[in-house]
Design brief:
Blueprint (H helix, E strand, L loop, with lengths): L6 E6 L1 H4 L6 H12 L6 E5 L3 H14 L2 E5 L10 H9 L3 E3 L1 H13 L13 E3 L3 E3 L8 E6 L2 E6 L3 H18 L10 E6 L3 H13 L5 E7 L2 E7 L7 H15 L3 E4 L4 H11 L4 E5 L5 H7 L8 E6 L3 H8 L3 H7 L4 H15 L3 E7 L14 E8 L2 E8 L4 H23 L3
Parallel strand pairs: 1-2, 1-3, 3-8, 13-14, 13-15
Antiparallel strand pairs: 4-5, 6-7, 7-8, 9-11, 9-12, 10-11, 15-16, 16-17
Length: 418
């Protein structure tokens, strides 16, 4: 029986350790490998020093079949990955004229020339193969020794992803190290807390001895992963278990795989050949941003209005001034008027609105910071809901956005259950 494939990733960069930049590379690489039936076993973040990178590399190279490094291939003084790896492997750094020509050609397209500092990118450890960088300068590098593979990738996100998809994935597939199916089945839920979700699914999942189950909670969403574990369940059996979970969850079931809440809303609108508009106060455009992050959103998202102060609510949405004076901007009445106003101005059959106290100041004893009203406009009527999120300003805005999307999602499902 062949030994299990072990994958280690070393992320280099002081900016990661200082909290100046998010480590999006791990998210990307983890997702890519899972899609192809394998998982990353370990990931470590180290600083830019040669000593730190060398120490991390020695450990990973001794334990893993595939080692990937991210960052540290550029032209500046803190780009030390090649130097550290060459030192660890006892290899020399050789100047590569082909790399120089490729970099010079890329820079020429942008009206630039390769200077002495940039030539640092033209060195590679002896015996390493070059992986073409189609969108940047520093190439990726590949090294194989005793059936172990070392892959060096640059730090810029666009460059790393282009090299990985164009060069790394095909080579790993050709070597028979990847599969044609994911390593697990996953589905997403919305609007049900993790503890309630686990309690609901427990009797369904406990009946399958050895089934691997994992939960991952996000804002008002929970992901569930199902994998064979020691049970040796087939892929078809996992799919049957997923179907059982879907039936038990009803409207709390969002979808399979990578489906997102805004993506699901847009798909439901597509099924009705309908469009949506939004009016935002406390969410400050986040609701519209979340929808427009989905490619093709313009087919079913008409647009939105951010009316943060009362004058704009009156001028842009036609909210009656008397309504604002009588009930206040944070009220069910104003949420309803905002939703109706934006639906009228954008000529959409559906609309959402948000108004609330995002804090840290404002609010009252009756309506403390975190109080949010959401308005929902549909061909069948118009309503408002009061919600309370006693959290930070950022989280209040995010939860209000997801609550609004989840409300219209459930209403659209009710209108068209098929």
């Amino acid at each position: 029986m062949p030994a299990p494939l072990r994958i280690a990733v070393i992320h280099t960069g002081d900016e990661l350790l200082l909290g100046l930049q998010l480590n999006r590379h791990l998210l990307y690489l983890g997702e890519q490998f899972v899609r192809h039936g394998v998982q990353i076993d370990q990931a470590i973040v180290v600083g830019d020093s040669i000593a730190a990178i060398t120490t991390a590399f020695h450990r990973a190279w001794a334990e893993a079949n595939i080692v990937i490094t991210t960052g540290g291939l550029g032209p500046t003084l803190d780009d030390n990955t090649k130097e550290a790896v060459a030192e660890a492997l006892g290899l020399s750094l050789d100047y590569d004229l082909d790399i120089e020509a490729n970099i010079a050609q890329h820079l020429a397209k942008e009206g630039q020339t390769l200077n002495d500092l940039g030539k640092k990118q033209c060195y590679k450890p002896s015996g390493f193969e070059t992986l073409k960088n189609p969108v940047g300068t520093a190439p990726g590098l590949w090294f194989t020794q005793n059936n172990r593979h070392l892959i060096l990738l640059p730090g810029p996100t666009q460059e790393l992803q282009a090299i990985f998809e164009d060069s790394v994935l095909p080579r790993l597939k050709q070597a028979g190290l990847l599969e044609n199916k994911p390593s697990f089945l996953s589905f997403k839920t919305a609007g049900i807390p993790e503890v309630e979700l686990a309690a609901l699914l427990k009797p369904l999942l406990d009946s399958h001895a050895g089934l691997g189950v994992a939960y991952c909670a996000h804002l008002d969403q929970v992901d569930v992963r199902l994998h064979p574990g020691p049970s040796n369940l087939s892929w078809a059996q996992l799919e049957k278990i997923l179907e059982t979970c879907q039936k038990a969850l009803g409207e709390d079931f969002l979808g399979v795989g990578d489906i997102s809440l805004p993506q699901n809303v847009l798909q439901l609108l597509q099924g009705k050949t309908a469009s949506l508009s939004v009016a935002e106060s406390c969410t400050g455009g986040l609701l519209a941003h979340t929808l427009t992050d989905i490619p093709g959103a313009s087919k079913h998202f008409a647009g939105g209005v951010v009316c943060y102060n009362n004058d704009m609510k009156i001028e842009l949405l036609g909210v009656p001034e008397a309504l604002l004076l009588q009930h206040g901007a944070v009220s069910a009445e104003v949420a309803v008027a905002m939703a109706a106003g934006v639906a009228e101005r954008f000529s959409t059959p559906y609309a959402l609105s948000t108004t609330g106290f995002a804090g840290p100041e404002g609010g009252s004893a009756e309506m403390p910071v975190g109080t949010v009203f959401i308005g929902y406009y549909a061909p069948t009527g118009i309503w408002a809901r009061r919600l309370y999120f006693p959290q930070s300003r950022r989280i209040i805005k995010e939860r209000a956005t997801y609550a609004a999307l989840d409300w219209i999602r459930r209403e659209l499902l009710t209108e068209n259950p098929n």
